[in-house]
Amino acid sequence: MAKDPVNNLNVLSQDLLPTPQQVKNALPLTEKAQATVLQGRETVRRILDREDPRLFVVIGPCSIHDIKAAHEYAKRLKRLADEVGDTLYLIMRVYFEKPRTTVGWKGLINDPFMDDSFHIEKGLHLARELLLHLAEMGLPASTEALDPITPQYISDLITWTAIGARTTESQTHREMASGLSTPIGFKNGTDGSLTVAINALHSAARGHHFLGINQEGQCAVFRTRGNRYGHIVLRGGNGRPNYDSVSIALVEKELAKAKLPVNIAVDCSHANSNKDPAVQPLVAENCVNQILEGNRSIVALMLESHLHAGSQPIPSDLKQLKYGVSVTDPCIGWETTEKLLHSAREKLKPVLGKRKAPG
Ligand SMILES: O=C[C@H](O)[C@H](O)COP(=O)(O)O
Ligand SMILES: C=C(OP(=O)(O)O)C(=O)O
């Protein structure tokens, strides 16, 4: 057959995937898992509405690459969540999709075997299976929504969603966010720009009409209501942090001027720590001190943490991978994680209940 001279000139192949419904039939949402998700989302909504005085903390590996290590991390985090839960509401980072600055491993869904075999079907199955396990344990999960199709496979297991710094300005992601059932954090831009996140909050709060796929895998027009639980996540940018009290005061002003709720999450990693994991506890401590000194706008922290500190490149011989060490951004290790959260809890416990909402 003659080659089609018009279409798919740069497409090498296409493979059909199971539909979201088929994957869900294989891994259905159980009653226990659903209860974790519903309770998690309600808790975050209440924190954003200032009906629950706690901070929520999005914490866990930069990316999930090893299911066994993710299980071990989750087990430890659940114990810690119970210990600090009267003050801090912990949500595990369960990030399966990585937006790359240029190229690189794009996460467990895209390439679960980390060998350029790109078994996306397997990746979706593994992702859903892990999320189900965490929800069954009673541990809420968060993820970055990057591919606009992926949420149909997993979002019933997610408590909080991030839109990353590289996609906050994207209309596609704002439309998707307007329909997601979770509260949603928009990062500021990689250049530090707040405007893109503020515009994203306005856009995602409104209803949109856009294309997507339904549970049966058919193309569909989605009409959304708009997500009123959007908030900004400050991650620094352009070589400069934006978690300090002066930056926070400026963001508070911008949010108020834009008539948006003055709710701020601080990402202690990325450009706020210059990707140096040793700096993350200092950023977290600084935010805790701001709250002790009267800050009313910080409602959440994000930390990149794993079983062991640091990061490693993905070796060509995967047997050389170090267990429990990030293969993307460097993380703090478990000991630091425990210490940091216990110390934050001790300092914040006496004050959070008396904290006033922004005036
Ligand atoms: O959080 C992860 C990374 O910061 C993000 O995916 C970009 O990574 P890269 O600059 O290594 O591609
Ligand atoms: C990619 C991430 O962050 P950012 O979008 O801020 O770079 C992340 O949190 O994994």
Overview of the structural elements:
- The protein is of the alpha/beta class.
- The chain has one domain: Aldolase class I (TIM Barrel, Alpha-Beta Barrel), CATH 3.20.20.70.
- The strands form two sheets. It has an eight-stranded parallel barrel with strand order 1-2-3-4-5-8-9-10, surrounded by eight helices. It has a two-stranded antiparallel ribbon with strand order 6-7.
- β6 and β7 form a beta hairpin.
- α2 packs across α4.
- Bound molecules: erythose-4-phosphate (E4P) and phosphoenolpyruvate.
- The site of erythose-4-phosphate (E4P) has 9 residues, from loops.
- The site of phosphoenolpyruvate has 10 residues, from loops.
Summary of the model, kept short:
The protein has 359 residues and is α/β, with parallel strands linked by helices. It has ten helices and ten strands. It is globular and about 75 Å long.
Write the layout of secondary structure elements.
Blueprint: H1 20-26, H2 31-48, E1 55-60, H3 67-84, E2 88-93, H4 120-137, E3 141-144, H5 151-154, E4 160-163, H6 171-179, E5 184-187, H7 195-205, E6 209-213, E7 219-223, E8 230-234, H8 245-257, E9 264-267, H9 280-292, E10 298-304, H10 334-352
Parallel strand pairs: 1-2, 1-10, 2-3, 3-4, 4-5, 5-8, 8-9, 9-10
Antiparallel strand pairs: 6-7
Helix pairs in contact: 2-4, 3-4, 3-10, 6-7, 9-10
The structure holds erythose-4-phosphate and phosphoenolpyruvate (PEP).
Residues 62, 98-101, 104, 270, 328-329 line the site of erythose-4-phosphate.
Function: Stereospecific condensation of phosphoenolpyruvate (PEP) and D-erythrose-4-phosphate (E4P) giving rise to 3-deoxy-D-arabino-heptulosonate-7-phosphate (DAHP).
Pfam family, one: DAHP_synth_1
GO biological process, one term: aromatic amino acid family biosynthetic process
